[in-house]
Design brief:
Length: 109
């Protein structure tokens, strides 16, 4: 009898795709926020804070996705509730996006 557990589609498989979509969309939005620097006058914007916050967000976003994806792929057939891993990764990506967006709002005004 063959083991078909790894062939079936699990709910977490869809959540990994949603997490990827959240990560890519939020990275693009943060990149688009950088373009607001063109509207800054001489001393209005905090340029070092803009640079460090965007790089920090991009690295955090990338690492959260890699860790969540790796853990999910390792545990998807071993744990019944493995869908929690990509769901929590997507939630962390959204929280990081909200924090980075608020920091950028302060630095660009």
């Amino acid at each position: 009898m063959e083991d078909r557990r790894s062939e079936r589609t699990l709910p977490g498989d869809y959540l990994v795709g949603i997490h990827l979509l959240i990560s890519v969309a939020s990275a693009i939005v943060i990149w688009a926020r950088i373009l607001e620097i063109a509207g800054c006058a001489e001393n209005e914007c905090d340029y070092p804070l803009v640079g460090s916050s965007t790089r920090t967000f991009w690295w955090m976003d990338f690492l959260v996705f890699i860790v969540a994806f790796g853990l999910y792929m390792f545990l998807r057939t071993r744990i019944r509730r493995s869908w929690i891993i990509p769901a929590s990764g997507g939630a962390l990506a959204l929280i990081g996006f909200l924090i980075a967006n608020s920091v950028l709002s302060g630095a660009l005004s």
